[in-house]
Structure formats: structure tokens, C-alpha cells
């Protein structure tokens, strides 16, 4: 150690301490680590907090040492000794006195902190410093904590992985009022999402208490979290985001987050569309982003497509020209995906006019016209669901390709006496046809050449007699069909392949 350092620190000679600044930085650089170790011994003595002479000597020496480290750029060489002295401060009282004056060890910690953490772009130094730095967040010194948070935020920019291991400590510090550290969370989220997710509800509750910059960092955190596609985050943040959309300060970044979510979880936004519509009417300049959300939800299924299109079309007619392109793209994308909504007129509508107002009117008219392609679709869905589950009394189900058929004999009303049940559930025409066959057997026209031979013969020979006998017991066709039910089912399936159910037909052409 340099002779002057040995004199000043060894004898705690305050009168000679100022002479250290007369020495060249390079002259004392080799003595800095040893000097730091000697300062640690002095500051750890039992009477240090009451010994003003020792405190003054230590403060002057630390100032000279940190200056020399900066000027010679030797922080990596002396970092271990510097961090060791810094760590020793944690063993002492750091809370300010009633006069808001820092304690002696808080002063040492503050001076060393600035020297160390200004080198946030040096990973070897940060690897030593950050585990010690986060410990100061809970030592009751607000000024020290605030300054520490500033430096940790800088460290998070270049070396977030070093902070990630201390995410839990950082989150707890934020919840205790150190909102400045919110800027650290977006940087460490990818490395340690779970500690943040566990406290996400509590973090969101801070929003109204935060200054505008801290609010922005909290929303940045949600944006990063939304990109990870975690369901628990989506469920917690969507109501929060929608609720804060009315604040024009942050609605741009909030909509960016919602668009991110809409890209992979559009159904989660479906119930919030009325609120989004209200906000769009209040802030027309947001319509471009709103259109993307409506477009994403509209691609889920045809029902949601039909519920989203009227809003998009109405905005096409009323919005300024800068939004027409995005609106038209979303409308066309939805109608291309579900072509039955506009039918063959789709291309004609989009090509018909350069007037967006005219296109909007045509689209509105077509949507109203097709509201009924909607009722038919629901009917088809119901028919499919019913026929899939349809079964005969003996539990037998016949399936073939896309056509499924099943007859329950208990539901056949051979007397035609007004029973509501139909032999083909959901097919009233089939019911009327069977029920009327007793008195008018010629109504049923079966392609006899395709019938099994036994069915054909009995049908030709015995059908005329059914009109003159008690039907329940003497209708030979009915009895024969009952006995040969499996063959009739097979025939029905074959016919179904050749002749589709009416609900499955479409009209082509104009």
C-alpha cells in the first residue's frame, strides 16, 4: 500500500488525508484494493458510528479511491474489494435519523454504489454487485433505495439475466412502494415469469397510484407477458386493459396488447366487443386498431363473423379515408373465410365501386339479406347434431361417410292419428309421408329397382291390402319393414349418398 495511504489509514490522520489528492492516480492505483480492505476494518469497529474523526478519514479516502478507479478504468481489478466493503455496510444501521441524515454506513454505501453501478455495462462487475445491490432495497433507506433502483434499471438493459434470479425480491420492493423498479420487470419477465405472474393482480392494482412513466412500464410488462401466450395472464389482464382504454394517455399501447392477444386468443375478447365499440366511437382515431381486433374475433366462426361485420361495415361508411383500407381488408378477409355470408356477390361488391360509402351500403344490404344463409346454417347444425345421436330402440346406429340415418319404430305412427313424433327426428316431411301412406299408399314412391328383392316383392303384393285392414296388426308392409329394419336402414344410407339432405344443398348461379 502507498506510504501516504498507510499513514492516513493506519493512524487515522485526518490532517494528512487531503494530501492523497496531490498524488497522481497511476501512482496510487496499485494500492487501492489494500486501502479498501483497511477501510472495511475501520468502518466495522464498534465505535465508528460515534467517531467523527474516523468517519471523516474514511469518507475522504473512499472519495480518493473511487476517483482513481474511474480515471484509471480499473474497476474490474478492484471490484471484489469494493463490493466487499459495500456488503459490510449491510451489517449496520442504514435507516436515516430523525433529521433525515444518512447514517455513517449509509454514506459509505451510497458512495460505493455510484462507483460500482455506473459500470452497468461491465458483466463481470455486475455479476459481483447485483446480488449485494438487491439487498439494499429492503433496508429502510428510501433515498438509497431510489438511487439503487435507478442503477438496477440501467443494469437490466444490458444484463437482465443477472437480475432475473432476484425477481421475487424486486417485485416485493415494488409492492412496498418502490415503483421505480417497474421498469426492470419487462426486462426480466422472459427469464423469470412465474414470480411476476403470482403477484400480477397486486401489481395491476397499483396502476391508479403510479406516475405516468411507471404506468407505462407496467403496461410494457403486460405487453411482454401477452407475447408469451399464457392463459392465466390473459384472464387477469384483459378486464384491466379494457377498463383503462378510456384513458387516452395509454390507449395506444393498450390496444397493441389487445391486438397481440387477439392473434392467439380472440374468443377471450368476444364479450368485450360492445365496450370496444363504445370506445371506438369516443376515440375515432383508434378505429384502425379496433378493426384488427374485430377482424380477429370475426375469424373464429361464422356466427362471430356475422356479429363483427356490421360494426366494420358501419365504420367503412363513416370513417375518414386513412382507415378505409384497413377496414376493407378486414371485411374482405372475413367474408373470404366464410364465403356463405356474401355468396357469389362478394367479388362484385368489392369491385363495383370506388366509393367506400357505396360499398358499405351494398354490404349492409347483403348482410341483411343473408341473415335468414344464417338461420339455415343453424338449422343444418341442429340437423347434424340430431342425426349424429339418432338411434333405434335396439340401440343400433347406422353411419356411412357424411350421411347418418336411423329409424325408431316406436316413433312411427302407422294410423296417422296426429302423433307429433316423426320416424326421422327433425324431418317432418318424412313423418307426413309415412303417416299418409296408410290411406294413400301410392304417395310413397320408392325406387323399386334399388330395393332388396324381399322388400320389393312384399311391397308389390301386400301394399294394396293395407287400406282395408286394422293397420296396427294387418299392415303387412309395416310389419315387414319392422322385421327387416336393418335392410331398410342400409337402403336409406345408400340413397343418402346419392341424394343429399335438402339442408345440405346450395343454390348455384344467380
UniProtKB/TrEMBL annotation:
SUPFAM superfamilies: ARM repeat (SSF48371). Keywords: Cell membrane, Membrane. It is found in: Cell membrane; Endomembrane system. InterPro entries: ARM-type_fold, Melted-like. It comes from the Eukaryota. It is a peripheral membrane protein. The keyword Membrane applies. This is Ventricular zone-expressed PH domain-containing protein homolog 1 isoform X2. The lineage of its organism: Eukaryota, Metazoa, Chordata, Craniata, Vertebrata.
Amino acid at each position: 500500500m502507498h506510504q501516504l495511504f498507510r499513514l492516513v489509514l493506519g493512524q487515522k490522520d485526518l490532517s494528512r488525508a487531503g494530501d492523497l489528492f496531490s498524488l497522481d492516480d497511476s501512482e496510487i492505483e496499485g494500492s487501492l484494493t489494500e486501502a479498501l480492505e483497511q477501510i472495511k476494518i475501520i468502518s466495522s469497529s464498534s465505535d465508528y458510528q460515534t467517531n467523527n474523526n474516523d468517519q471523516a478519514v474514511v469518507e475522504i479516502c473512499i472519495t480518493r479511491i473511487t476517483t482513481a478507479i474511474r480515471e484509471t478504468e480499473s474497476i474490474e481489478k478492484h471490484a471484489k474489494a469494493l463490493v466487499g466493503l459495500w456488503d459490510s455496510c449491510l451489517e449496520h444501521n442504514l435507516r436515516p435519523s430523525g433529521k433525515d441524515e444518512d447514517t455513517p454506513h449509509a454514506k459509505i454505501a451510497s458512495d460505493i454504489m455510484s462507483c460500482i453501478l455506473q459500470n452497468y455495462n461491465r458483466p463481470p462487475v455486475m455479476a459481483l454487485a447485483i446480488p449485494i445491490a438487491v439487498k439494499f432495497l429492503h433496508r429502510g433507506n428510501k433515498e438509497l433505495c431510489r438511487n439503487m433502483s435507478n442503477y438496477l434499471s440501467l443494469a437490466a438493459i444490458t444484463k437482465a439475466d443477472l437480475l432475473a434470479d432476484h425477481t421475487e425480491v424486486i417485485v416485493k420492493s415494488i409492492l412496498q412502494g418502490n415503483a421505480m423498479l417497474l421498469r426492470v420487470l419487462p426486462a426480466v419477465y422472459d427469464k423469470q415469469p412465474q414470480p411476476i405472474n403470482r403477484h400480477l393482480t397486486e401489481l395491476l392494482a397499483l396502476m391508479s397510484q403510479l406516475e405516468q412513466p411507471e404506468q407505462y412500464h407496467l403496461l410494457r410488462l403486460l405487453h411482454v407477458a401477452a407475447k408469451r401466450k399464457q392463459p392465466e395472464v390473459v384472464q387477469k389482464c384483459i378486464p384491466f386493459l379494457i377498463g383503462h382504454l378510456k384513458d387516452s394517455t395509454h390507449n395506444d399501447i393498450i390496444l397493441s396488447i389487445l391486438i397481440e392477444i387477439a392473434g392467439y386468443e380472440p374468443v377471450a375478447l368476444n364479450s368485450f366487443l360492445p365496450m370496444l365499440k363504445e370506445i371506438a366511437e369516443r376515440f375515432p382515431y383508434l378505429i384502425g386498431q379496433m378493426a384488427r381486433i374485430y377482424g380477429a374475433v370475426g375469424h373464429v366462426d361464422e356466427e362471430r363473423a356475422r356479429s363483427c361485420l356490421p360494426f366494420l361495415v358501419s365504420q367503412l361508411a363513416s370513417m375518414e379515408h386513412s382507415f378505409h383500407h384497413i377496414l376493407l381488408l378486414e371485411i374482405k378477409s372475413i367474408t373470404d373465410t366464410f364465403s356463405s355470408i356474401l355468396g357469389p356477390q362478394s367479388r362484385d361488391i368489392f369491385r363495383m365501386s370506388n366509393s367506400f360509402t357505396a360499398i358499405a351500403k351494398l354490404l349492409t344490404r347483403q348482410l341483411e339479406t343473408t341473415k335468414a344463409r344464417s338461420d339455415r346454417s343453424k338449422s343444418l347444425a341442429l340437423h347434424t347434431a340430431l342425426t349424429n345421436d339418432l338411434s333405434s330402440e335396439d340401440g343400433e346406429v347406422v353411419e356411412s361417410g357424411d350421411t347418418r340415418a336411423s329409424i325408431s319404430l316406436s316413433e312411427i305412427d302407422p294410423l296417422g292419428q296426429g302423433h307429433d313424433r316423426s320416424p326421422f327426428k327433425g324431418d317432418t316431411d318424412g313423418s307426413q309421408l309415412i303417416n299418409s301412406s296408410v290411406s294413400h299408399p301410392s304417395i310413397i314412391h320408392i325406387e323399386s329397382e334399388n330395393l332388396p328383392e324381399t322388400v320389393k316383392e312384399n311391397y308389390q303384393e301386400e301394399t294394396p291390402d293395407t287400406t282395408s285392414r286394422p293397420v296396427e296388426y294387418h299392415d303387412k308392409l309395416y310389419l315387414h319393414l319392422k322385421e327387416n329394419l336393418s335392410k331398410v336402414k342400409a337402403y336409406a344410407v345408400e340413397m343418402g349418398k346419392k341424394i343429399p339432405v335438402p339442408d345440405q344443398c346450395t343454390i348455384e348461379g344467380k
